[in-house]
Structure formats: C-alpha cells, structure tokens
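sry for the spam today, last one i promise. struct tokens for design, 435 residues
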C-alpha cells in the first residue's frame, strides 16, 4: 500500500508521534498526546482533557487547527490517523493543510462537518489519493450510515463500461484540538478525478463540467441554470455554463417530437441508463432533497468531430433518506419523487418499460430487502462501540432532534421502512408502466 507523504519540516514534532504510538500503553499515549499538542496548538485550542481513554475499533483522526474553525475562511491545520492494531489500511504520518466547516444548513448543527484540503495529495485508509477530504458529521442521522449506505448502493449498480460514480467513504472517529468530537464518515470529494473527466486546460474551447444543484429550482423546468453552482471548471478561473444552459433549454422547451427524437433528442444528451439508476436510488431511499436539489450532474469534454458526451447524474447528500427527512422527521414509505426531466421521460412507453425492467432486475439483487438489511448490519457492526461514544457526546435528547430516537431504534425503523417502501414501489412502478 502507498504510504502517506512525509510531513514537512514544520510538522516534524507531530511526525514523531507516529513512531511513538506503537508499543505504548493507553496511559502513555494520553501523556504523549498532551505533550505533543502543546507544541502545535494555540493556547485556546489546547485539549481540555487527554483523548483516547478507550481502545479504538475505528480509525481515529486527530484534527488540530491553529485557530477556531469556521465556515467562512480556511484555517491551517494538521491531521493524523491512529488505526486499530489489526488494521492494515493506514499509517500515522502527520499531514498539513487547511480546514473549514463544511455544508450549508448543516453548519447550524452543534456537531460540525469539516472540509479538509491537504498541502499534498495523500491516500487516507484504502480510499483514493487526493488533497480534498470531507468529514461528514451526520448529526441528524441517528444511524450514522445513510450517506454511506446510499453511495455504496449506487456504486454497486455499475456495469462493464458503465460505472455509477459516487464517493467512497469510511467510518472514523474524530478528535478536534484534543477533544473527542464523535463518529464521522470520511468521504472523498466529487470532482473530475472521481468522475473520470478530462482535466481543465485554459486554452481549450470546451471543458469537462460539473454542476451541483443547490436549491429546488434545479428541476429542469426552465431555461438557464437557476439553482445550480458550477463546481468544475473552477468558476474563479472560467465560467462555463453553456452545456447546462443548452440542456435546461432543451428539456424545458422542446416539443415532444424533438424531445424523443433519435438524432438530437434527450437520449443523445443524457445517459438514460444512468438517469434510470439515479431516479431509482432517489425512489428507493426516498431522498426528499435529492431529485430537484442536492444532486450533481456532469459531462466530459466535447471534442471536435466526435459525439457530444452525455450528461450523467451523481448522488449527493443522502442524510434525508430511509424514512427520515432533512430535519430527521419521519417520512411515509408511499411517496413518488420526480422532476421535470424525469416526468418528461416517463411519457415514453419505451422508457417506462426500461425503467420497470431495471427496477425488477435490481429488486432481485442490489435492491432486495435481504441485501439492504445486510448492508445495514455490516455498517452497524463496523461502527461498533463508536456508536456509544458518539451518543454520549451528542445525546439525542438535546439539540435539534425531533425525537429521542436511539441508534438501535433507528436501525430497526430503517429495516421496517425499507420493507414497506420496496413493496409500495413494486406496485407503483408496475402501475406507471401501463397508465
């Protein structure tokens, strides 16, 4: 396995810790941590109490920031990993970079998510090598697994030469400036490298593009690009809205004949197999924010004398799923979710047949209750005792929770909900196939 890059000279005091962990008692680790923290942290950032008074069952990330982390500016930081003794997927070198609070509305939660940009690309655990990482707090998700479960499900739908792109992730526990901050999901970032897109070259006329839907006007119902943010190319370097503007104009204004045309219709503009799988994931999980907001749409570079690349969907932000909404309120299992593009596609008998056939195929495999229950059980086993430590730090009787649901209760409700959800979708998709 590729080692993490060596730390710069400025981080050498922390690098020494990676050799000191091994063979050291838990008391010794606590004392070493206190001594080492004092070489890096400012006075207000020193830990109130020594960490690691428990043997970790998950990788532990130590995040040290030079000053208070906020959502407006990036703060210099260092991170290091400590893995369970039996782990073979990480080292403990210290890495430097910058950190800020990650997310939009979730910034208001007591437990913050963090975005970390390292000074140099690094391979964390068994994930891909990159500079950009997200520590997702999953504050309103009592199960702590809705994001991972959804992204793993979508990636499992990949076929030969037809990948379903979504971030990979791993459960970790996090200390911030010496204080325990709970269980997190270490996630990759959605970018051109993850999606297999051509890199940006400023002299090119056309570019690979990634757009994120950030509010409910991103529903394909009007021309322009309301409700979107450009993610690639970097909008500070190059504004590049033409591909999305053309798609939105076509979807919102084309006649039925043009929309389903064989040569210039929707099938040559959007990867319909990908759109079907994306819609089925939204429906399976009942992502209340995922069909006209909080998704990503991307396309590779359009090259001269070559077919125009098709847009494809990438799932994002799946905490409002599996029976709970964005604020953790309960969601009934009988609700159809769609947008203007998906509604227009559904008018085609051929598309409805493809949609129904794909649902039936997945229901026997990736979308079977047995498979999903097994994935839930596996995540619960992986989280292990970290669940208890997270609940102690962030009790569900406090904060913005609508109820005091425990981890165990949430898991039980998720399992029961997915049974009712799949049964309802079986009937609803069959009904829609022959309206």
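last one done:
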């Amino acid at each position: 396995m590729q080692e993490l890059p060596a730390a710069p000279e400025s981080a050498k005091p922390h690098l020494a810790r990676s050799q000191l962990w091994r063979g050291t008692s838990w008391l010794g680790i606590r004392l070493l941590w206190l001594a080492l923290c004092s070489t890096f942290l400012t006075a207000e950032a020193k830990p109130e109490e020594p960490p690691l008074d428990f043997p970790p069952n998950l990788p532990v990330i130590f995040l040290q920031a030079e000053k208070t982390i906020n959502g407006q500016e990036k703060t210099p930081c260092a991170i290091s990993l400590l893995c369970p003794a039996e782990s073979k997927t990480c080292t403990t070198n210290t890495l430097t970079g910058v950190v800020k609070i990650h997310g939009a509305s979730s910034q208001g939660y007591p437990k913050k998510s963090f975005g970390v940009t390292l000074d140099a690309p690094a391979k964390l655990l068994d994930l891909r090598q990159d500079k950009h990482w997200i520590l997702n707090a999953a504050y309103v998700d009592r199960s702590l697994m809705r994001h991972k479960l959804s992204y793993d499900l979508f990636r499992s739908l990949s076929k030969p030469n037809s990948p379903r792109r979504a971030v990979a992730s791993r459960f970790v526990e996090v200390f911030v400036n010496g204080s325990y901050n709970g269980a997190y999901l270490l996630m990759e970032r959605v970018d051109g490298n993850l999606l297999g897109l051509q890199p940006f070259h400023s002299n090119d006329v056309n570019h690979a593009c990634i757009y994120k839907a950030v509010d409910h006007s991103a529903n394909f119902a009007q021309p322009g690009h309301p409700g979107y943010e450009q993610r690639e190319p970097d909008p500070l370097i190059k504004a590049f809205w033409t591909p999305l503007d053309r798609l939105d104009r076509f979807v919102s204004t084309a006649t039925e004949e043009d929309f389903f045309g064989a040569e210039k219709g929707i099938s040559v503009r959007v990867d319909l197999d990908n759109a079907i799988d994306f819609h089925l994931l939204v429906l399976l999980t009942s992502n209340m924010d995922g069909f006209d907001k909080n998704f990503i749409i991307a396309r590779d570079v359009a090259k001269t004398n070559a077919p125009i690349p098709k847009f494809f969907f990438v799932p994002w932000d799946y905490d409002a799923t599996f029976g709970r909404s964005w604020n953790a309120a309960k969601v009934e299992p009988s609700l159809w979710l769609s947008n203007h593009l998906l509604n227009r596609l559904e008018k085609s008998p051929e598309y409805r047949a493809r949609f129904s056939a794909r649902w039936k195929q997945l229901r026997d495999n990736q979308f079977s209750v047995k498979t999903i229950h097994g994935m839930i059980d596996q995540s619960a086993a992986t989280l292990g005792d970290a669940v208890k430590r997270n609940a102690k730090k962030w009790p569900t009787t406090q904060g913005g929770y609508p109820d005091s649901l425990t981890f165990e209760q949430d898991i039980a409700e998720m399992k029961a909900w997915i049974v009712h959800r799949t049964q309802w979708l079986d009937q609803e998709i069959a009904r829609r196939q022959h309206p």
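Confidence is low (pLDDT under 50) at residues 1-50. ok im logging off now
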